[in-house]
Design goal:
Helix content: 25-40%
Radius of gyration: 25 Å
CATH topology of the largest domain: Rossmann fold
CATH architecture of the largest domain: 3-Layer(aba) Sandwich
Number of helices: 21
Strand order of the largest sheet: 1-2-3-21-22-23-24-20-19-18
CATH superfamily of the largest domain: ANL, N-terminal domain
Length: about 625
């Protein structure tokens, strides 16, 4: 193998050297080697020791700062109610003892069918104390789905022995349809006692009343390889797969995060966060950061939607985070609010040191807007960080600690993460190995689990990357899309979907929510655009009651998207990048059928499957079709 230099001129990538609010960040250069067309990258900083169990940090916190809130949520009166580290440890010990008494374990784990709330967190920590794996399952499986197909699949895959639900009335039908008499149902709803099939439920308070006896000794016997939790993948190509996550995976990844962001150890992190715990970003990454570093989590019941984002703004007017995490849509909404809301600015900017986005790419236009409003009212910029993570790597592997700060940048491997780049279908697939990577999927019924790993034991992600600067590979990686999303035109020409989607979202700001690229086995590329209806309505000068159909057919809106086609094609180098046609979708992406995830990211494969007729219309339409825009020929 040939060694590649890792020192030198990376700093020149900071254009203009803008001033940033001081923050402690890791900055170890990568060690890079090459074996033919295969690249290997890893941090030159070794991973420091980490605890055997993530709940060791709960015990440490209860001893070091017993009265500090670990987590808080608004109560029915609208006031913040928090649970301290000491009280949380007391409750986790009681719940853990209750779970031990039920003989639960990997073959009969705990399932949580609930949103983010304090009972959910208490049961999570109790299960971790007892060494009983828990599985937070997306509430959408029960509340949005009409056939409960994904929930039934989750139950059949895990065979849970106990299920926690926050609101029995909301989940009653799903529980009756998918669980049997051997599954104990625990509910936070004190007034609900039975299911439709006559089963008696257990009140959550009963778990808290258990007297701890053997839990401490049992907890001390747990090791790094003890299963901590199951998380389900998004199921982009088939039914979701269960990822068994060990204590080692959680703890090593949190140590990677701490060494990447030493600020977490300098100042206990304060988070105001809505991201769902059924996903690895919210549940393993963000909750883990708080627990591992002695911080406080304020549970945000808002969402980046028109109906729910006001709740997020209400919370951010009252609580000043030290670091703020969100998906790109949330950042776009927050940047707009910061431009007009003085109270929000006063609180939000008072203590925040880092911005972090994940779940999808942040467009350069949204990035620039966020930096403008920050610099205008702070006098400095705040670092916008991102990276690459996934459920199978618990979750983080790459972080943007290199010399670049721009949309699409993934950065460099975290300490302890070995990264391999392998040519696949004309791209470089990213593969990962380390203590944070799963050993294999749980009870996978179809396919060989070993297919997820190569012959050197690296997890095959299916994500592609390019070097940000081929002359300086030490600068790190840029995202190059999902290999499985790419397709061929009927000419045999490959279309790289990821970079094209990113360009459309960026060039189309602020009128594009997301886009699906079409053209498989067809003559040219098409775009099905999910528009930002409110922004398009304003562009068209239409009243609030104007229908979506009227908005997307308005002359000003059609003119903008016709111009977008022109602008996109100015840099086209051939049929692989030339967009021939575009349509705006009237119906938003559906959570129920999986077109969009809980985090707001689009599943291209599902959209293409369920909107096949739209695809046919888009590619068959002639120049006179009223709903299809064509690029000039």
């Amino acid at each position: 193998m040939n060694s590649i230099a890792t020192q030198g001129e990376a700093a020149v990538a900071h254009v203009g050297q803008p001033r940033y609010r001081p923050v402690a960040l890791g900055s170890a250069p990568p060690a890079i080697t090459r074996d033919g067309d295969v690249w290997y990258l890893k941090s030159t900083e070794t991973l420091d020791p980490y605890p055997a169990r993530i709940t060791d940090r709960l015990i440490d916190g209860a001893n070091a700062h017993p009265d500090r809130w670990l987590a808080a949520r608004r109560n029915a009166d609208g006031n913040w109610f928090g649970i301290s580290y000491a009280e949380m440890l007391t409750r986790a010990r009681a719940i853990g003892q209750a779970l031990l008494a039920r003989n639960l374990g990997a073959d009969r784990p705990v399932m949580v069918l609930s949103g983010n709330d304090l009972d959910h967190l208490q049961l999570t920590l109790g299960a971790l104390m007892a060494g009983v794996p828990f599985a937070p399952v997306s509430p959408a499986y029960a509340l949005v789905s009409s056939d409960f197909g994904k929930l039934r699949h989750a139950v059949e895959t895990l065979t849970p022995g106990l299920v926690l639900v926050s609101d029995l009335a909301a989940y009653r039908a799903a529980l009756t349809a998918t669980t049997g008499a051997d599954v104990e149902i625990v509910t936070s709803d004190a007034d609900a006692t039975t299911l439709d099939d006559g089963r008696t439920t257990t009140p959550f308070a009963a778990l808290l009343q258990t007297v701890p006896t053997t839990i401490d000794a049992h907890h001390a016997s747990l090791g790094p390889d003890t299963l901590a939790k199951f998380l389900f993948t998004s199921g982009s190509t088939r039914l979701p797969k269960a990822v068994p996550t060990t204590q080692r995976m959680l703890c090593s990844n949190q140590q990677m995060l701490r060494q990447t962001f030493p600020q977490f150890a300098v100042e206990p992190p304060v988070l105001v966060d809505w991201l769902p715990w059924s996903h690895t970003f919210g549940g393993s990454h963000n909750v883990g950061i708080v627990l591992y570093n002695g911080g406080t989590l304020y549970i945000d019941d808002g969402r980046p939607t028109p109906q729910q984002f006001p709740e997020t703004l209400r919370n951010l007017r009252e609580v000043a985070p030290t670091v703020y995490f969100n998906v790109p849509k949330g950042w776009e909404e927050l940047a707009a609010a910061l431009e007009t809301d003085q109270t929000l600015r006063d609180t939000f900017f008072s203590n925040v040191k880092l911005y972090f986005f994940a779940g999808a790419g942040l467009s350069q236009a949204a990035w620039n807007r966020l930096e403008r409003v920050t610099e205008q009212y702070c006098g400095t910029r705040i670092r916008i960080m991102a990276g690459l993570g996934m459920t199978e790597t618990s979750p983080s592997s790459l972080f943007t600690t290199g010399p670049l700060m721009c949309a699409g940048y993934l950065g460099l491997p975290a300490p302890g993460c070995e990264t391999k780049l392998v040519p696949v279908d004309g791209k470089l697939e990213m593969r990962f190995r380390g203590p944070h990577v799963m050993a294999g999927y749980w009870r996978l019924k179809e396919g060989d689990p070993r297919d997820a790993f190569d012959d050197e034991g690296y997890y095959r992600t299916g994500d592609a990357a390019t070097f940000a600067n081929p002359e300086h590979p030490e600068w790190g990686l840029m995202f190059d899309g999902r290999i499985a999303e790419d397709f061929k035109l009927n000419t045999g020409t490959f279309v790289s979907v990821g970079p094209l989607r990113a360009r459309v979202v960026s060039e189309g700001a602020p009128y594009v929510q997301d886009v699906v690229v079409t053209g498989l086995d067809r003559a040219d590329i098409g775009l099905m655009v999910f528009p930002r209806v409110d922004e398009c309505r304003a562009l068209a000068g239409l009243p609030p009651q104007a229908s979506v159909a009227d908005v997307i057919r308005a002359p000003a809106v059609k003119a903008f998207f016709a111009d977008l086609l022109t602008r996109l094609n100015q840099r086209a180098t051939g049929s692989a990048t030339y967009v021939a046609r575009l349509c705006l979708l009237e119906q938003p992406p559906s959570l129920a059928i999986g077109e969009i995830t809980d985090k707001g990211s689009i599943n291209q494969r599902v959209v293409l499957k369920h909107r096949a007729q739209h695809v046919d219309t888009l590619h068959a339409a002639d120049d006179d079709h009223p709903d299809v825009l064509h690029a000039p020929r």
